[in-house]
Write a structure and sequence with these properties.
Blueprint lengths: L3 E3 L2 H6 L15 E5 L6 H13 L4 E7 L3 H7 L4 E5 L4 H12 L4 E4 L10 H6 L7 E3 L16 E3 L3 H8 L3 H6 L1 H12 L2 E4 L4 E4 L5 E4 L11 H14 L4 H23 L6 H4 L3 H6 L2
Helix pairs in contact: 2-9, 6-8, 9-10
Length: 281
């Protein structure tokens, strides 16, 4: 498939999200976010809030044990799980025990790398639920078992490491890199950049060209990962969830740029813009 779909408001109207129904929070799905170390626990919080802003009904967040208490206060909407950072198999077992009761899993916010082996341990386990892999967890993907409903969200540098190629080559043709990764890892790929591409393993591709430079700020990618995971938990397909997540993230950035300035808004402010954008459809 060579056609590239334009991800815009018309695309959203043509591909509406599943209706939540009357089952309350349980009918909108449950998300589990697996974050990195204590020093970057805020990244998991950004992702978790974004998942809820995207309409997910319930949230669990797994972080380093020393971050549990402050995160429980900062994010009272979530159940916070404690991870033993130096015991990957034990931590993975805890995560998968709780993931069995969830509808979508996000691995990676706040992970600088997978030095503790947690992402690798998780991706070695079989699950049928959607799994989104971001940030430092992406290093575990090449050696991982192939999972159904796997979504990868790399930037150009992360994609270069995934494909063992020069970052300049990724920047020169991000769509080609996205297609290569989608085929190699049998995953839905969100190739992040000034224009973001959504690519399926079967070759379907979409392009979103909005958003603006203000979205290039620390924590922005964590918000995008959370939005996509929240939409997956609601029952969207991987391509639909990725396209909607990219659109909501970009349009939220455009709104903040118009109201606050082209640069200088914070990642924590992005998700707050999402509910009114969703309500416009």
């Amino acid at each position: 498939m060579t056609n590239i779909e334009t991800i815009d408001a018309d695309w959203m109207r043509a591909h509406p999200l599943p209706e939540p129904g009357d089952e309350g929070k349980h009918g909108r799905g449950q998300v589990l976010v697996v974050g990195g170390g204590a020093e970057l626990a805020g990244a998991a919080m950004l992702a978790g809030v974004a998942a809820l802003r995207a309409g997910a009904g319930k949230l669990q967040v797994a972080v380093a044990r020393e971050a549990v208490a402050p995160l429980s206060v900062a994010l009272p909407e979530a159940r916070i799980l404690a991870l033993q950072g130096d015991q990957a198999d034990t931590a993975a077992g805890l995560v998968m025990e709780h993931a069995a009761r969830c509808d979508a899993l996000l691995i990676g916010p706040g992970m600088m790398d997978d030095g503790a082996g947690l992402a690798a341990a998780l991706l070695a386990l079989e699950t049928r639920d959607p799994v989104v892999v971001d940030a430092g967890a992406l290093v575990a993907v090449p050696a991982a078992r192939r999972q159904p409903n796997l979504v990868l969200t790399p930037n150009a540098g992360e994609m270069a490491r995934l494909l063992d190629m020069d970052k300049g080559a990724v920047d020169a043709d991000p769509l080609a890199a996205g297609r290569q990764a989608a085929r190699r890892f049998e995953a839905l790929v969100v190739m992040k950049g000034a224009s973001t591409f959504v690519v399926s393993p079967q070759g379907r591709a979409g392009r979103y060209a909005g958003g603006g430079p203000g979205l290039g700020v620390s924590g922005s990618g964590d918000v995008l990962g959370g939005l996509i995971t929240g939409l997956l938990a609601r029952g969207a397909t991987p391509f639909q969830a990725a396209a909607w997540g990219v659109y909501l993230h970009g349009e939220a950035g455009a709104r903040l740029a118009a109201n606050l300035g082209k640069l200088g808004f914070l990642a924590r402010e992005i998700a707050d813009q999402v509910p009114p954008i969703l309500s416009s459809f």
